[in-house]
Amino acid sequence: MQAASASARDVAAIGITNQRETLVLWDRKTLEPIAPAIVWQDRRTADDCRRLREAGHEQRVREVTGLVLDPYFTATKLAWALKNVDGAATAAAGTVDSWLIARLSEGRDHVTDASNASRTLLFDIGQGAWSEEMAELFGVSLGSLPEVADSSGAIS
């Protein structure tokens, strides 16, 4: 936002690249993170993934999301945060792109695109939408997640 306000011209468009599996939780009003981001390398939910695998869920997860059960992806990080981070249940959640867009739009937009959504273990790649089934499996709410929008074009 500082770069846009320092520019002598109106900004017509921006591009965002990000670590697609990193989880950010932020206050919906202030847009400030409520905790440090949980990055893609974080392995704190490895035991949760192992338990889900041992319970026989990996094949269904793979069918719906195209991914394997691994803490690399966002769903188990979000489930962990809901149990361990104060305010997580009412916070906005998403990957870095969705937090940046929320900041750039002053909170008007809480969006991501399918390429980022597909790295969460919560996106049904066949339907092209968030999966209630996966949300239930991981114990998270889809209400905290961003709307899935096209990866190019106007957001608002």
* Overall form: globular
Task: Report strand %.
Answer: 5-15%
Record the strand order, biggest sheet.
1-2
Unreliable stretches (pLDDT < 50, length at least 5) are none
Residue-averaged pLDDT: 92
What string, H for helix and E for strand, traces the elements in order? HEHHHEHEHEEHE
> Strand tally, please?
6
Distance between the termini: 17 Å
Major β-sheet, in short?
A: 2 strands, antiparallel
Structure write-up:
It is a single chain. The protein is globular. Strands 1-2 form a two-stranded antiparallel ribbon. It has 156 residues and is α+β, with helices and mostly antiparallel strands. 34% of the residues lie in helices and 10% in strands. The protein has helices at 2-6, 46-54, 58-65, 74-84, 96-104, 114-117, 132-138, and strands at 24-26, 92-94, 111-113, 123-124, 129-130, 147-149. A hairpin with a 4-residue loop joins strand 4 (123-124) and strand 5. It has 7 helices and 6 strands; from the N terminus they run H-E-H-H-H-E-H-E-H-E-E-H-E.
Looking at this protein, list some descriptive labels.
6 strands; 156 residues; two-stranded antiparallel sheet; alpha+beta; 34% helix; 7 helices; two-stranded parallel ribbon
